């Protein structure tokens, strides 16, 4: 009896997303970018092979234990500071616990988030954009465009203030008493402008922000602010997909 090749089913974008445990929009972006090999049907719909999706899934699972080891080694980062030199939300202890459970801090770069920071810079015509995560000690950048730093002390984070509301815009940091002596303003990268929106997990905790920065004082037009908000929602949806269980 001859051996037969095991079947390798063709999957729709939604089926691929369900297998990966990500949002449909995320799977669509991966397929369109080539991160997941795919093709278009005559009707214009994306299709992929199950084996290709499983390969991506395997890569995600390899990274997952690394994130756990990182969090364990730096567990005190996820405990509230006794005398913080920065503003904290009322739910800081629970927020830090949720951030630890999300297992994002210290993980490798991911195209799904890098794409969003790149788009944030493009739609706002900003030279810098970040996806930040705020532990008790530091502001860590899960994704960054136009910025070489990977992290800063939490006390330097503009984003600590952004966590307190629905958004935050600083048109000129040199004129703002909260930030004019900040090392990120007085030194590299010489931030003058900031605009950011909080990123929420599946339980509503604000883990960090999607923000844009400029070295010149400026304003955002309403459509630019709305576009940045929509990108922050997309980043939140991806986080929520991972933290909803």
From TrEMBL:
Q: Where do the Helix-turn-helix domain residues begin and end?
A: 11-58
Ranges where the GAF domain occurs: 113-238
Extract the Gene3D superfamilies matched here.
Answer: 1.10.1660.10, 3.30.450.40
UniProt cross-references to InterPro entries, sorted A to Z: DNA-bd_dom_put_sf (IPR009061), GAF (IPR003018), GAF-like_dom_sf (IPR029016), HTH_17 (IPR041657), SinI_DNA-bd (IPR010093)
**GO MF term set:** DNA binding
Q: Per its UniProt entry, which superkingdom is the organism in? A: Bacteria
The protein in question is named Helix-turn-helix domain-containing protein
Q: Coiled-coil stretches, from where to where? A: none
